Amino acid sequence: MMAAQSQSRAEPCPERSRRGSRRIINRQPVLSRSKGSPILWLAFTAVLLIAFFFRFYRLADHPLGLFWDPSVNGLDAVRLMQRGGHAVFMPTNGGREALVVYLLIPFIWLFDTTPFAVRALTATTGLLTIALLFGFLKAVSCLDFGTGYKRLAAQLAISSSWSNGLCLAPLAGLILATSYWHIAVSRLGVRAVLVAVFSVPMFWFFLKGWAGQQKRWFVLSGLLMGLAGYTYFAARLLPLILVLSLIPEFFDRPKQKIGKYGPGLLVFIGSALAIYLPMAWYLVTHPAQFTARAFSVIIWNFLDTPAAIIAEMGRNALRALGFFCCAGSPNPIFGLPGWPGLPFVLTPFLLLGLAFALKQWRHIFCRLLALWWLVGVAPSLVTIEAPHPLRMIVAVVPTAVLIAFGLINTANWLQARFTFSTLRWLPLALILTTLPGTFRAYFIDWTRLQTTQGIYDYGAIAIRDAILDHAGDETPLYVPLARLNDSPLLFYLSGPFARRAALETSPAESALVIAPEKNAQDPTWLRLQNHTATVLPPLTGAGQRLIKTALADPAATPIQTGAGEIVARLAALPADPAQFLEQPTHRLEAVFGPVRLTGGSYSPVIAPQAGNIPFTLFWQALAPINNEYDVILHLVDDQRRVWGDGSGRPIDWVYPTTFWRPGLDEIAARHNVILTEQLAPGRYWLAVSLFDPATGRRLPLTHAHGDSPDTFFAGPLKAPLPPPDENIPPLEQEVIFGDVAKLSGFQADQLAVTAGEPVKIALLWEAVTPSGLDYTVFVHLLDANLNLVAGYDAQPLDGHYPTSIWSAGERILDPHVLPLPASLPPGQYHLALGLYHQPTGERLPLHVAGGGADAAGRLFIPQPVIVIKK
């Protein structure tokens, strides 16, 4: 009765005849024609003002800095602004849809590379979502979906001065505006919040098209569906929600329904595919990118048995429910740990609203809303780190609407039983009582946590301010690459300082350095001067000592956060470290697609006990590069077995390959090869490849010597032998093979053996002149007529220590085992040995002090080998 009286006061959905149509359809009401319109506009304004406050209050400094992910998005936007290019998908940092990067560009242009620029985008997006939700619910309340459907307005009628059913829009809008969950993700600076702002109008326009059979709404809805695919991987749930919502519509008279709705659906699908086609093509050509990020967090990748998976899914379900009532998220990135995504007082109404939507399953909007929430929550059930507010982001909007459903139905139920007119204000009162707790949890308690200040890198803000205060045009300022490689600080400085790379620069009379104490011994530094950040080669030992001494000086000025934590020191340098730069020691020539490897700096001798080995590679870009390549760097032996790995992005985030300027930059990238085990003595190679994460493939090697299609082998390098046993008996005469090796000693276990047994000997070599050739040692057994009866040829140490890596004066103990045939007759035999180059068969000439050299380059051991009868 009360609802009917309210409806008589103001009709929110006036019906108008559509020219040329036999049926009456519902149009959105013109608010000025409804008595409830002024109140509705007032409610809309109040909700937006509240939403604006919670999303923009202290947005620039609460929290003070950014964390990793939004900073990386900002860096990608800076790269597009400074270097150009285009992308639909960013394969780095786990893989990210690129729309947020393009949307960030105008905000960075307006507000520079600041935390506010990144967060202003998502805060604006959150505000826009609430405005769109208001319009969506106001419109859908009035839509007529045909025979058998009640208008939503009639189902949610509430006795008040508002127009019948239109209280749903301001109530749900207020809930979303004050939702701790939505406030946190709106101010977070990450792309997930874009899903909500696209899903609301997408469903809105689709339902308008469904109710009115007007193709323009299907076109608009399809365009938004396609664009949503460029936001966040959770947006891939939106087509599933829509399909599941539509299937029941075709249970009754399917042929008639297909004829009626089929053209509109085809228009919708065509519009969505037209927009999504570039992303679809990218994912088809880069299939690993489609699933890489999502599959990396799926629980069955971490559990072994079906029982364990099912049990974990059950625990995740409880965690997800806890997020909506009492436990919240434990991750301090998303706000105060343990603070629930919903106020406890509103949680029962979420369940009541869901029950109402499920009860009204035949109504397409109610069915859509229930599935919107259920499917949106599902990712947290099957992934690690549940509950995860971003992976459930699809459910944030329907959560607010379902709570509004629950509140309205509860108010209706109470008004039907009690005569208190004030009960109609109960939903509003319950929502407003939650605001003080939400404000205190987010704006006071959360940022007091030391964990929050660490995650949001308050130290980077302090270092940024110190750099901007001291970096001038005259005196260069040095900052460690490792500290700048933290993406927040790099993002803050990307606007004030344009980046470039060079192998040298003119030293100044003096310089400054700003660095944390832990970075005092870092080898690679950036030079900031004249609004330019120059990536320089690693410093030599003298340059590193210069910086280390200055930072350790008590006169160095500490740089502190607002809480008093010392995060770095500022020191004056007596000389410019630019005079102590590492330069290439080895010329290398290899071309990988658009990139040329020009040189390397490394020691050819590797200490076997070293835990990691530094290598510096020098690069140039031959053409603009649109992808961020990684260097695959392995230490391998002659059999290509990997002994160490130094793979990584050259210069990391500071100067990735997309920044390299053809013909202008020379890039020196330091890599530390981590050994997997202690090296065996012998020859090794540095295997270099360029890897494209977007395709999952190595770039082809287009110009280099070698037989590999994608890997360049630099070297050789060697792990030296330990000092040899000096108990090897020396030879009586000096014996030299060519200018390569001197045989200093010879030893045999025994020279009297039985046929079929081996003769074991040890040769002690001394390198004379380094040779680039690998010579093979031959050990021959000759009969009395000098005919060969047995022999064994091998490079020193069975090929593990070839002559090409010998150093002048180095002594090499080289054991050999000469197998004897079992049929060898008893008697005395001669043992002869020498060196030859296997490709040509040419033996090294033999020089014996005092003469007596064999013309065939053979040294005859004086002691005979005696073969005895078995």
Task: Record keyword descriptors for this entry.
870 residues, alpha+beta, ten-stranded antiparallel sheet, seven-stranded mixed sheet, 24 helices
What's a concise summary of this model?
With 870 residues, this protein is of the alpha+beta class. The chain is built from 24 helices and 32 strands. β10 (557-560) and β11 form a beta hairpin.
Q: Strand tally, please?
A: 32
How large a portion of the residues is in β-strands, by DSSP E? 15-25%
Major β-sheet annotation? 10 strands, antiparallel
Radius of gyration equals 38 Å
Low-confidence stretches: 1-12, 14-35, 157-165
Structural class: alpha+beta
What does this structure look like?
It is built from 24 helices and 32 strands. By secondary structure, it is of the alpha+beta class. Strands 12, 13, 14, 15, 16, 17, 18, 19, 20 and 21 form a 10-stranded antiparallel sheet that branches. Strands 6-9-8-5-7-11-10 form a 7-stranded mixed sheet. Strands 24, 26, 27, 29, 30 and 32 form a 6-stranded mixed sheet that branches. The longest helix is centred in the first third of the chain and has 32 residues. The N terminus is likely disordered.
